[in-house]
Design a protein that fits this description.
2 domains, 4-stranded antiparallel sheet, 4 strands, Alpha-Beta Plaits, alpha+beta, rod-shaped, 45% helix, 4 helices
Length: 154
Amino acid sequence: MQIFSTFEDTGYLELAISLLEEKGINKENIFAVPLDNRQADRKIFDTLHRSDGISLVDLAMALATAFSVICASIGFILSWGPIYWGLIGASIGFVLGLAIKLFIIKVVKKQPNQLHGQKSEVILIIDCDATKAELIEEILWDHLAIGVAKIVNK
């Protein structure tokens, strides 16, 4: 029987492995595989299927609205009228807001490449007899395993 489990890379994993060794599981039957953190740079623009939670157009839309209202109000006394000046103000506000947000994201905040608050995980694979499966599963859950799965070898 094989038991698979995932852990965050913390001290609880080490405690679980040492307790499994104390309970009679050989070191040769315990296999731990650490997963790598994401190292690629974040993409600025989101797609339909992927989003990182950072919005570029929130400030741009707010400034577009504010500039269009102000320019449309001023447009009543200018020669092109309020509609044209409202569209011009909206365009200027949108471009200005997008430029400010890009500057903040790229230069000021410079977010790290890995996800916020998440560490890499470790996959733990244990070969054992079916008689020890319940004990091993209980030990893994007690040491804060994220998930546990059992596979019976036939």
